[in-house]
Amino acid sequence: MRGFNGFSYADVAGELDITTASLHYHYRGKAELGKALIDRYGERFAEALDAIYARPAGALPKLRAYADLYAGVMDEERMCLCGMLAAEYRTLPEPMQDAVVTFFDANEAWLDRVLREGRKRGELTFSGSPREVARALISALEGALLTSRPYADPDRFRATAREMIKRLASPAPRRAPAAPRR
Amino acid sequence: MRGFNGFSYADVAGELDITTASLHYHYRGKAELGKALIDRYGERFAEALDAIYARPAGALPKLRAYADLYAGVMDEERMCLCGMLAAEYRTLPEPMQDAVVTFFDANEAWLDRVLREGRKRGELTFSGSPREVARALISALEGALLTSRPYADPDRFRATAREMIKRLASPAPRRAPAAPRR
DNA sequence: GTCTATAGGCAGATAGAC
DNA sequence: GTCTATCTGCCTATAGAC
């Protein structure tokens, strides 16, 4: 993927072995085509999130599975579509901007739920609001995808992601936030 | 900033109130212009890092100052130049790709040093290698810039960054990794 | 150093035949 | 639905006068 400003109608048409005129029959313009691509991406991602949530597993395995989703994206396309589009957000037509925001909001809501439930059950320990932690986690994973892009090594992303999740939602090694003893 | 594919020679020339032909006198082509922009950005960033390192402060304040650098970038341009270019890395001419990598490597090296020294002096506590943590920190901050782009609120970035640094390099609240007592 | 003029290419988009 | 042909506009880049 090359971003909205980095791909052309001809690129997509060529991939489908049709002409740009034919592509125009299906999508009025580039903005509409772009929005459709985001929506499809968002739907697939949402399905994957549902599948993870349905598993009979704890919060921490779910978070790890969430990170693995990103790793899978990286293997296939080397970057999350919406992460890339966020970079050129200001140049996007409005319908595409809205679709990008929708994607991030959905991720945040899903993580918020997992984090909230995980803390309630005592599986996770973190200070601050679940929403803040959810945003931090999304930021960290998107950022890890972004910064590992220039480096061919996929392990670079995996190592960073592992580092993140360990710190963001580590199972409580201790109980009470008692006063430090020396 | 709109990225490499999102700005034109005419944009830059217009900003300088000259013509594109004049701009060509100074920079042979768009690739050379782009590389010069990255280099200038990298130099300024490096100067800021030197200034932070020279301060008579501990590792943690230095890390906070590092995060503030990103916050400053966000206020001015809403995105780190190299973070944005990393998203469209594959479409960049080679000299620009190299310049982007140089930027990230320099950041990593600086953080690695601060983290290493901070741990040695007992100011920071983290498991794993300083290099891994450095990468995680860069990822987190770049990602926070990226994902807060669609949301006008600058506090969104600040809150996420604070959340990160608290977790990434928190001063040890306790000493020994003793067995959990119940 | 900066300009006007212009080349040459590729972009997104449309008309109309099949 | 897909095609050919074509339009218009913007892009990077160059030539050559001042």
Q: Nutshell version of this structure?
A:
Chain A is mostly helical and 182 residues long. Chain A has one domain (30-166): Tetracycline Repressor, domain 2 (Orthogonal Bundle). Chain A has helices at 9-15, 20-26, 30-54, 59-77, 81-87, 94-120, 130-148, 154-168.
Tags for this model:
182 residues; mainly alpha; Tetracycline Repressor, domain 2; homodimer; DNA-binding; 69% helix
Main sheet overview of chain A: none
What letter string, H or E per element, gives the SSE order of chain A? HHHHHHHH
Fraction of helical residues of chain A: 55-70%
Low-pLDDT parts of chain A are: 171-182
User: CATH first level of chain A: which class?
Assistant: Mainly Alpha
| Backbone structural class of chain A | mainly alpha
Kindly report the average pLDDT value of chain A: 90
Report how far the terminal alpha carbons of chain A are from each other: 54 Å
Shape of chain A: elongated
Overview of this protein structure:
2 copies of one chain form a homodimer. Chain A is an all-alpha fold. Chain A has one domain: Tetracycline Repressor, domain 2 (Orthogonal Bundle). In chain A, helix 4 packs antiparallel against helix 6 and helix 6 crosses helix 7. The longest helix of chain A is centred in the middle third of the chain and has 27 residues.
Secondary structure layout plus pairing:
The structure is a homodimer of 182-residue chains.
Chain A: H1 9-15, H2 20-26, H3 30-54, H4 59-77, H5 81-87, H6 94-120, H7 130-148, H8 154-168
Chain A binds a DNA duplex (18 and 18 nucleotides) through residues 8-10, 18-22, 24-26, 28-30.
